[in-house]
UniProtKB/TrEMBL annotation:
NCBIfam families reported in the protein's UniProt record: PME_inhib
CDD domains registered for this protein in UniProt: PMEI-like_2
InterPro entries per UniProt: Invertase/methylesterase_inhib, PCW_Enzyme_Inhibitor, Pectinesterase_inhib_dom
Keywords: Disulfide bond, Signal
Protein name: Pectinesterase inhibitor domain-containing protein
The keyword Signal belongs to this UniProt entry's keyword annotation: yes
């Protein structure tokens, strides 16, 4: 009987250690919980548990949305859109660089690049305010800032 109890205790101990190691690697965590735009984050990353995979998926979605916003800006009358076309180009460059930073585990640079994207999107909006004109791509621009904010949140899970 003593051997059976010991085997059960050992099995239980091993199972507990496996559970704890999963928790230490982010398994079981909701990477979107606490994000400023949690519903949007969930729509991008789903139930992904790896912060690296989730961050990469979020940046890829951000690249897609930025390309769409750039295309929308390019269709505006030329006198209204040069700032936005330029800043979206810069944002795309920063996003590609952020993926490189993520792959090399340089989270500081990853965060800087994503923060730059948010600032660039704000510059696009500001250019319309300075002209005293309505901002026709406001929804796309806000979506870019929201996704970037979520990516910065997910990056907090990367050690």
């Amino acid at each position: 009987m003593g051997v059976t109890v010991n085997k059960q205790l050992i099995s239980l101990s091993l199972l507990f250690l496996v559970f704890l190691s999963g928790q230490a690697h982010g398994q079981g965590l909701d990477l979107c919980a606490g994000a400023n735009y949690a519903a949007l984050s969930h729509s991008v990353v789903g139930r992904e548990k790896s912060p690296y995979v989730a961050a990469e998926a979020t940046v890829n979605r951000l690249i897609s949305e930025t390309k769409q916003a750039k295309s929308s800006a390019a269709r505006l009358p030329h006198k209204d859109s040069p700032t936005c076309t330029y800043v979206y180009d810069e944002a795309l460059y920063s996003l590609k660089e952020s993926l490189r930073s993520l792959k090399s585990h340089d989270i500081g640079s990853f965060n800087v690049k994503l923060s730059a994207v948010m600032s660039l999107a704000e510059a696009c909006k500001d250019s319309f305010e300075e002209m005293g004109k309505p901002f026709p791509i406001a929804k796309q621009n806000e979506l870019i800032k929201h996704i970037a904010s979520n990516a910065l949140h997910i990056a907090t899970f990367i050690s």
